[in-house]
Amino acid sequence: MRKILVFFILLGIVLPLVGCGTVQGFGEDITWVGRKTSEMLDPDAATPPPSSYSTRY
């Protein structure tokens, strides 16, 4: 039973690394997961600010 659990844990670690192909791709994957997690936890935070706010400062 323990070997099966270790196998699936390693599989869960290795597959995403193989899927992204590069370190930059892995970083983008992690960023995407973080963004989606934030959206799930606080859907209102995912909405963009009103157009009256300036982001060029």
Describe, in plain words, how this protein is organized in 3D.
The structure is a single chain. The protein has 57 residues and is mainly alpha-helical. Helix content is 67%, strand content 0%. It has 2 helices and no strands. The protein has helices spanning 2-20, 23-41. α1 (2-20) packs across α2 (23-41). The chain is flat and about 40 Å long.
Quaternary state reads single chain
State the total count of DSSP E strands: 0
Task: Quickly give the structural class.
Answer: mainly alpha
Radius of gyration: 18 Å
Our count of helices gives 2
From N to C, what is the helix and strand string? HH
Name its key features.
single chain; 57 residues; 2 helices
Element layout with pairings:
Elements (H helix, E strand, L loop, with lengths): L1 H19 L2 H19 L16
Helix pairs in contact: 1-2
Describe the structure in brief:
With 57 residues, this protein is mainly alpha-helical. The chain is built from two helices and no strands.
